[in-house]
Amino acid sequence: xxxxxxSTYHELMNEAASHGYDIxxxxxxxxxxxxxxFKEYRELFYVPRKKTLPQTDLSLVDGESESVYLLGxxxxxxxxxxxxxxxxxxxxxAEMLVFIYxxxxx
Length: 106
What we know:
Blueprint: H1 3-18, H2 26-34, H3 81-96, H4 100-103
């Protein structure tokens, strides 16, 4: 383990112990979620249901539950604002043709 990983691991161990949690417990995970300073941003993104993802074995999971997205080298979750922004740009393109590139780049 690198130094940063060891440090983070020990910080998590100490945090869990200070609140009486096992580091691998659901309760500790829920506690960490409650402390997440970025949690309000979650509502700005589409989070697919497991049933919509390819290769999901619905005999093993609840298809209605949200997926867990851990792939860090991709486009990521789609921001909800993207659809509206794209449609506005498409409308401008329809009105301005090629001139959109000169006068109306976002």
